[in-house]
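Bit of a strange request maybe. I'm writing a small parser for C-alpha cell strings and I need a real example to test against, not something I typed by hand. Could someone generate the C-alpha cells for this chain?
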Amino acid sequence: MLAAVPAAADVTGFLGANTTPANRRTQGFSIGAGLLLLGFEFEYANTPDDPDSASPALRTGMGNVLLQTPFALLGIQPYVTTGAGIYRETLASRVQTGFALNNGAGVKINLIGPVRIRVDYRAFKLGDDALYSPAHRIYAGLNLKF
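Reply from user aminoacidic:
Good idea to test on real output. This should exercise your parser:
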C-alpha cells in the first residue's frame, strides 16, 4: 500500500563570484540528499581577499534546506534554499568568525545521465561585526546525481 520514496544524493563542485564589496573568484563544493520536494546539503566555499579593493577573504560552511521540484521540468530542476552556519572573514590582520544565515535560489540542468550543471545565487547575512553584510555570491558548477 505504501511505496517507499527513493532518496537521491548529489555532489557539486563550483566556481563563481563573490560580488561584495568587489568581484572576486569563489570556489567550493556541496554534498546533499533529498526526498521528493525537500533536500538537505552541506556546503563549503572560499573566496580569497583583494587588498587593493579592501575586500576580505570569506570562508563559509553552511547547512542548507532546499525546496525543489520533485523532478526536472524540461530538463531543469529549480529550487529555493535557506540555511545557517559559520563564516570567517579575513582582511590583513583583522579576523572575524561568527554565525551566518543564507537564502538563495538556483537550478540544476540535466546534461548527460547523472551529470548536471548547477547555477545558484546566495545572499549571506554575516553576523557579529562583519565588514560587509550581506555578501552576495553567484556560481555555476558540475553536479553529479547518484
